[in-house]
Design a protein that fits this description.
With about 800 residues, the protein is mainly alpha-helical. Helix content is about 65%, strand content about 5%. It contains 32 helices and 7 strands. The strands form 3 sheets. The chain has a 3-stranded mixed beta sheet with strand order 1-2-5, covered by helices on one side. A two-stranded antiparallel ribbon has the order 3-4. A two-stranded antiparallel ribbon has the order 6-7. Strand 6 and strand 7 form a beta hairpin. Helix 28 packs antiparallel against helix 30. It is elongated.
């Protein structure tokens, strides 16, 4: 509201008219803290209530009186420096008049900033000490561009009035204009500012200031420095906008600005100029518009997406300025240093109370209040940084994700899938062991698995209906919540009929996720980033298997050592922990933006498009081939390689890691060879590895070949998902995914049943060789059936 009333070309006073007294008090509190009270008083007095206008008139009068104190303070110090033979230039403050503000009485005054050559700044410091000034904080190892702030300890105390006439005027002695060791970059040409300083006169006050072009540069650098540190003040942005608006037609000034400043400096300046234009809608000179066009793409993107973040941080903490700083740096070490400094503050805040009271006048009450206010302020800063962590993570995902064509909604889905998969991995890993603890045998476990599978098949049809009727996100949220509740019931119930009924219902509900996965990823990715998006989802699911197994295996023991001694109780508590983790998936999923309802499919599941039919035929043989071995992988190592359970677990973890690497590398292969040839090649490689696995006898060789088999097998999955989703219209993705799920699951079930018989009769080598032959045929089918009929994009040929 306040900013709208201060915009130069699109002034909007309407929101002010509807403010209540309480809202006005909040608005004035914001304007006081941000430095915009005086501009508000002079820009739109007619839009202010009488009591607000009276208060602002008083502030204007007090500020005018304070200007007289500033002049007196400066004159005293300048005389002392002149006597000592010290030359200096005044920075910021009243030197901004008349280019940044029409009258010095119309801007708030804080410190007087004086710039000295570095070799003279310590002498100037001694001069100020002799005038009766003292440092607020004498020792400060943090690198700055000025010595510790100097004040006179008059006994003045803060009473909440930003325009108190008695506020002492402090001095800051600067010896440089930029801190490259903090910001990790530096513009060229700052050393020339001192050479171009000029004598000036303002309201009877004579002083030396910077050249007008350098004055604008220094103001921009000051604003940028605070912007990058998350402490920008709206007043500085407003004054920048005022300068731009009123000097837009001053071609001589802007020609000098171009001639005097290096391109590296102009680039930093125009960042602040464009920010001022966005906030306050000021005019922009032609020279500035031309420079804006030359900004790096990352900087332009930040200004387009996050320009309002510094203002929003006053109400909702964020650290979006990190990504602007990131865009301005070239070195990785610099970026890491900035991230570390901004995410983990390096020093405590300075004193916040009683800095103008001499030590000998500090009573015990004052000292207690001083410590209390410091602790209160330090606590608020800790809370601020803590509150900024979640939005910073979110903006990081959005910033870096967009560069690889993956937006923030994709990452919300990604983390939701992570919580769900991790929680369900814990539950599934422990559930059969829990049933054994209850006294059930393998026959009942097999029955549970069969009933769950039957529920999966029936649920696939309902899943398509739910996604088309209600949308993918609501269907997933209902599924995740239901699965968590049903799984908790399965952990509590001990009756066999009830367990079978719950298994069937759970299978019905859990079918939503495998069917929704491909359409959901497709809905939150672009065509360019879709393959990479599927790679990350698939690889994360595999990676979760690495850590999920370790977590699930150790959870019952950990729980038994911390309160639940019985074995059944520790298993039940572990299962409930998995259910809770599944519920956490609802948080990122609820924040994901996705179209409410899937478009109605023009085709029914029983009449899929011809391309989908050819795809699922090829997939059926692929799942049949891999399904001959996948259900018996652990048995293979136990019986064929004679390995212990812990050794098998280590091999499986290593294989999971190899899958992650393979899936992440898959997009590179798809870009080089295209989707169809890439998938076909990976399937053929899997067949060759199966032949090798059939012939090995050494456990070490078997482990190595098995890791290669798992990597090759899963490397093609992202491409398969991408091909299927790109092959059909958006409205048919759910149906196509459901059909693919049904065919794949059916093929795997048939393969497992056949393999069990064949393994018992012939052993592993013949079965693995048969699996290799079927996988080779699947690779041939994929190449022949889909090479000419895939989507038109060259990347899929």
């Amino acid at each position: 509201m306040v900013l709208g009333a201060l915009r130069f070309q699109s002034l909007d006073l309407a929101p002010l008219a509807g403010l209540t007294e309480g809202e006005w008090k909040k608005a004035l509190e914001f304007s006081d803290r941000s430095g915009l009270t005086l501009p508000l008083a002079t820009t739109c007095p007619q839009a202010l209530p009488d009591w607000v206008r009276c208060r602002l008139d008083r502030d204007l009068a007090n500020n005018a009186a304070r200007w007289d104190r500033v002049k007196a303070t400066y004159s005293e110090a300048a005389c002392a420096f002149q006597t000592a033979g010290l030359e200096f230039a005044v920075l910021k403050g009243f030197t901004h008049c008349p280019r940044f503000v029409s009258d010095p009485r119309l801007r708030p005054h804080g410190d007087i900033d004086l710039h000295f050559p570095q070799e003279n700044v310590n002498r100037a410091y001694d001069v100020v000490l002799r005038l009766g000034y003292e440092p607020i904080r004498a020792h400060d190892s943090h690198p700055l561009n000025h010595l510790p702030t100097l004040v006179r300890k008059t006994g003045w105390e803060w009473k909440g009035d930003y325009f108190d006439i008695e506020i002492p005027v402090s001095l800051e002695l600067h010896y440089r204009l930029w801190q490259p060791e903090i910001e990790r970059f530096s513009p060229a040409g700052l050393d020339r500012f001192w050479e171009r300083r000029q004598g000036r006169e303002l309201d009877g006050l004579h002083f030396t200031g910077l050249h007008p072009a350098d004055e604008a540069a220094n103001a921009a650098l000051h604003l940028l420095r605070h912007l990058l540190r998350g402490s920008s003040r709206p007043l500085h942005v407003y004054e920048m906008a005022w300068m731009l608006h009123h000097s837009a037609d001053d071609t001589s000034f802007w020609n000098a600005w171009i001639d005097l400043h290096d391109a590296s400096l102009r680039r930093l300046e125009v960042i602040c100029f464009l920010l001022a234009h966005i906030w306050f809608d000021c005019r922009l000179p032609r020279a500035v518009v031309d420079e804006i066009e030359q900004l790096p793409s990352g900087v332009k993107r930040w200004l387009a997406e996050y320009a309002w973040s510094p203002l929003a941080s006053k109400f909702q903490p964020n650290k979006d300025e990190l990504w602007l700083h990131w865009s301005l740096l070239d070195s990785l070490s610099g970026r890491v240093a900035v991230l570390r400094r901004r995410l983990i503050p390096e020093r405590l805040p300075g004193p916040v109370d009683g800095v103008h009271i001499p030590d000998h006048r500090l009573t015990w009450r004052m000292q207690f209040r001083r410590r209390w206010r410091f602790l209160k302020y330090a606590g608020s800063r800790v809370l601020h940084h803590a509150r900024a962590i979640p939005p910073t993570i979110g903006s990081a995902l959005g910033w870096f994700g967009a560069s690889i064509e993956l937006g923030v909604d994709y990452w919300r889905l990604f983390f939701s899938e992570g919580f769900y998969n991790f929680g369900m991995f814990v539950f599934v890993f422990l559930y059969n062991l829990y049933l054994l603890q209850l006294g059930f045998d393998e026959k009942f476990l097999g029955l549970i698995a069969g009933v769950t599978t039957t529920g999966n098949i029936a649920g696939s049809f309902l899943a398509v209906f739910a996604m088309q009727r209600f949308g993918i996100r609501p269907a997933l949220m209902a599924s995740f919540a239901s699965i968590a509740g049903l799984s908790a019931l399965r952990a509590a119930v001990v009756s066999a009929p009830a367990l079978l009924a719950l298994a069937a219902i759970s299978g019905l509900v859990s079918s939503v996720w495998p069917i929704a996965l491909a359409p959901a990823v497709a809905a939150v990715t672009t065509e360019k980033g879709r393959s990479r998006g599927f790679s990350f989802v698939v690889s994360s699911g595999i990676a979760i298997g690495i850590f999920g197994g370790l977590a699930a295996g150790g959870l019952p023991g950990w729980i038994s050592r911390h309160g639940i001694s019985s074995s059944i109780g520790s298993y039940r508590a572990s299962l409930l922990a998995g259910c809770f983790i599944v519920l956490l998936a609802l948080w990122p999923l609820s924040r994901m933006k996705m179209s409410g309802v899937q478009p109605k499919s023009e085709r029914r599941l029983r009449r899929p498009p011809p391309l989908v039919v050819r795809f699922v035929v090829a997939m059926a043989f692929w799942q049949l081939g891999t399904g001959l071995f996948n259900p018996f992988r652990n048995v293979f190592f136990a019986k064929q390689m004679h390995l212990a359970v812990d050794q098998i677990g280590s091999i499986f973890s290593l294989a999971q890691a190899s899958q992650v690497a393979a899936v992440l590398l898959a997009p590179i292969a798809f870009r080089k060879f295209g989707l169809v040839r890439g998938i076909s090649g990976m399937e053929f490689a899997t067949a060759l590895i199966l032949v090798a696995l059939a012939s090995v006898s050494s456990p070490l060789a078997g482990a190595a070949v098995y890791c290669a088999f798992m990597a090759a097998q899963y490397m093609g999955e992202p491409g398969m998902f991408t091909f299927l989703m790109d092959a059909v219209p958006a409205g048919e993705r759910s149906s196509a995914s459901a059909l693919n799920f049904l065919v794949s699951f059916g093929s795997q079930a048939i393969a497992a049943a056949i393999a069990g018989v064949l393994l018992a009769r012939f052993g592993y080598p013949p079965v693995l060789t048969s699996a290799a032959i079927i996988c080779s045929f699947a690779a041939f089918l994929f190449r022949v059936l889909l090479a000419r009929t895939g989507p038109d994009s060259p990347s899929r040929r």
